[in-house]
Amino acid sequence: MAENNQNNNQKQQNGKDNPFGRFNPNRKGDGKPPKFNAYWIYGIIAIVFLVVQYYISYSHGPIDTNWGEVKQMIENGDVERLEVINEKEANVYIKKDHLKNYEDRFQGNFSKPAEVGPHFTFKTGPIEKFATDLAKAQEGKPDEILPSYKDENNWLRDILLSFGPFIIIILLWWWIFRRMSRGGAGGGAGGIFNVGKSQAKIFDKDQRVSTTFKDVAGLAEAKQEVEEIVEFLKNPAKYTKLGGKIPKGALLVGPPGTGKTLLAKAVAGEANVPFFSMSGSDFVEMFVGVGASRVRDLFKQAKEKAPCIVFIDEIDAIGRARGRNPNMGSNDERENTLNQLLTEMDGFDTNSGVIILAATNRADILDRALMRAGRFDRQIHVELPDLNERTEIFRVHLRPLKLSEDVKVDFLSKQTPGFSGADIANVCNEAALIAARKNKDSVTKQDFLDAVDRIIGGLEKKNKIISQEEKKTIAYHEAGHATISWLLEYAHPLVKVTIVPRGKALGAAWYLPEERSITTKEQLLDEMASALGGRAAEEIVFGKISSGAQNDLEKITKQAYAMVSIFGMSEKVGNVSYYDSTGQSDYSFTKPYSEKTAELIDEEVKILIDSQYERAKQVLRDNAEGHSKLANLLLEREVIFSEDLEEIFGKRPWEKKHLMGENGNGDSKMPEISADEPKDVQDTETEVLPE
Hints:
By secondary structure, the chain is of the alpha/beta class. It is built from 25 helices and 15 strands.
């Protein structure tokens, strides 16, 4: 074993630390001939070309001059002879005893004053004019200089200048086609310029991720499943000695921001095996066959390093169900990539020792072949954290903050129901920024409350111009919601409401939802009546309605259609559901019911909405005094809390039930945020827990 490790280390040393690889002269023989590397040829050609170019351009030779200077040399009697080359240029030879007069000119071109010429060169121009000018310059001179004429050719320079570019282009094309031929169509395993090569980041033993399971707060069940995958790779014999097989893949499913990628990072940090990480979009390219080529290359690398883990984030980018291509039958590169992925995960060739992890928040659109056992054997649901898990997450993100004594982790976790781990991290960061903006020495409880309000409702707009009439309409609208939600058993009770504009909304309200596993028809009807309370209040108090209820109407319309056509809560339509869980109806031009049934559904929806609207108006008429007090209090303070409603209407008989929920953990659904046009009365229905 020690000898094998030593040999492996020697191979790694030869391959990585030594830049010459197999050309290392100190490398021990392995019985194989040295592998020829074409890049050596490229380098030699480039060096030769540069040397020749340097020789042609920068080698020492005659100094360039002009006819004016040569004429002066002739008049001074310094010129020994002239040599005309190709009737285009002339070389000037200086007399040896006159060279000292030009020693300063030779510096930088000659190492010392040259005794052998030529010493200068110049362009003659038209040869007839040159002969005439030379004759005039020598008039009256006793020693006449007669130029000699020669024809010379610089074959090397002419060849390089004429054929050099073509040679470079041919070599470049040869290299490109050689690269393409390695992997066939689509770039192959390497592909042209590595376009078909896997883009995965490899975290090996020498390059570890710092994130571990200790850094993952909450998600107890999901973390346990992932920890078991790491244990599979560390101690496979424990699970296979009874004849079982190690799962091939696990799919992390959950809403955005719940920590799916964080779990994968923890796996990379905990596992003592190579970890390949890439995104589903890394497979997608504009070239045909590149995605499939990258899949092949990824699994080729993974099999070479098995046992290992491959993590594909946002796998829905390539894993959508086939047959939903909007191009209507044309070749779809994404489907080719998916087909290759399916083959590699569980095809004819086995990939033992390679475990696939993937993450998505769109599991409903994934192809069924991808979800079957043998590919993704396990689906790990990463849900929104409950009260206790939010407390753990807050403790992680509060570590780097300087907190005030009034900040309690339990209080913060109760104020953020429905928040994901990413939302909680954002709350902590936003609270720190708010405290710094106010020049505080520590982050206080109020800073966290302001951060929650800003994240849910948007930035507070104190300078927005609103008329008194609009402000009054907003106050009665919000008071209508608050009144009905407080007086109906199953409606979400109000926690806080404000008429200070936030984001696009002119009014914002925070409600506490009840934790439910199933929802009854009575509960849905109470919620519908509460949502219609704003418009009902406008009609009763002002005798007219505004566009501020647009978000409310959109919400209750969808809810009513779901009750009739999906939940089977209409007596006339019956116990039928037209919901397609496979998602195929999204690409269908026909509805799964007749036109007569469609008319019946529309009628039932209208009856539901109208009945709850009349119910909302009746509740407001019966409690007109309390509604008016609440609206005036809202106009006076701009922000009111559940304590104010309790003083006006009394305690809710269902308060304890709504506060704690059926399981007593105070959890809730994800906050619902509504934002309409800025000039209208708007609601931001946000659900939080009171202090």
